[in-house]
Amino acid sequence: MFFCDYANTLRRKFVFLCQKLKNLFIMPANKNALIRYKTIDNCLRNPYRQWTLDDLVEACSDALYEMEGITKGVSVRTVQGDIQVMRSDKLGYNAPIEVYDHKYYRYADRDYSIFNMPMSEGDVELLQEAVDMLRQLQDFDQFNEMADVVSRLQDKLAITHKGHKPIVNFDNVPDLKGLKLLNPLYNYIAKRQTLRIVYQSFNARQSQEFIMFPHLLKEFRNRWFIFGSRAKDMVLYNLALDRIISVEPVHDVPYQDNPRFDPEHFFDDVIGVSKNINNKPRRVKFWTSREQSKYVLTKPLHTSQKLLHRNPDDGSCVFQIEVVINFELYSVLMSYGPGLRVLSPRNVVAYMRDKLLEAAKGYEE
To answer: pTM, whole model, 2 decimals?
Structure first.
């Protein structure tokens, strides 16, 4: 009962906090207003031109036409209202817009921009409260993956509020091919939209077309995959986003769920992403040297890992995991070099032996 009450208290507090954060970072009522604010801001930051109200109206009209295709333009009254909003605290801008020579507009502070505002003490306190709340929530299993988000927020707060240099550095591959597909694929999955995907794997000479019901996006080692069922036979496929050539919606094939694919537990018995619905986990036993045992003990290869035996004489260990046999498993096992030796099953032992012998031949003179 205490756990449920505590969880419900945290949930209510978190919802309240999210609303406060929404108010802190509130955006203009619509996209057109944001375009106008940004345009006015760009104009007033240009000290090499004198900007009349008519000039600002014309600049906003041109921006709305270029970005949204709006041809009716903007009225003088609308831009006057925008300037008043930017000057006020309504959106937190408090822009120092002044009129000089009874005609021209500019920023009194030439370094000012509505997109370069420092956070107030209240903003920092609110964000710190959010971080503290997230740290409480990450104690629950459902929020374990928020740990890196909390660290990022803490790091950003230290930089913004105290002028500190970053103290945490995260792996990222910003130019990774296929990342631009993440957002549209996410929306297609959320809307249960059947897709036509043209795909070419590394080993294929020609591309292949799939009519697919997309189910899940999965990340593994900075590479993204989409899991979906082929429409004609409901066979499950996982496709790397960086090998997708094109994606388009298919409106004449109704979306279907795959009752055999459970995204919450499908990956419980696998390392990586290579797994078919019919694959069953196998017990893999392996020996590790004293040095490598330290790493395997502190960072298990899989959640199913068990310590079967520890040799008191040399510090070596024997472990067991229950996983689907796939390429990613072999890759992880080989990464430990001579400090790890597979003991069973036989087919895994044979594969490891053959690949390591093949690798050793590459070093022979």
So the answer is: 0.57
